[in-house]
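Message: A physicist's question: would you kindly supply an amino acid chain plus fold tokens?
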Amino acid sequence: MTMLIKPLVKTFAAAAIGIVLATSAFAQSAKEIRGASPYVEIENEPAAKLIVDPPLPGPLAQGIFQAQYRVENVRILPVFGAGALTASPRIGHLHITVDDLPWWWADASDNNTVDIAGLPPGEHKVKIALVDANHNVFPGQVVTARFIVPANTTGHKSHH
């Protein structure tokens, strides 16, 4: 019986090692998924990038604009001013404008969704700009979402 168990144990051990090696060959590192560590300065950082999804249709039917976003090569943080421009990895935030109004607001929450409630029926646009800590737009990083709030909308008022 002992002679039978030893080869069986060796077979299971070899299979387990094979599974571990195969899994680690396909697994992505934390750096590949999350980006560089905030403790390490990045030389020659790639350009910052803003990606914005189209607004969600369900909330739009209620007069609510909700669009998810993500950024690459920049961290969204509530840090502002010229001194923060030299931080590495770089930091920034969003500027959001609705319907070309003369004012905007800054969003440094990084909650991954822009949420604007109370929009009346009709055509609208939301401009989302990725900016540095000194409020300068990263080159080419402005996304404008154009959309229509349906006429049957009640102009839902949100209490977020």
Q: What stands out?
A: The longest strand covers residues 137-149. The CA atoms of residues 74 and 151 lie 39 Å apart.
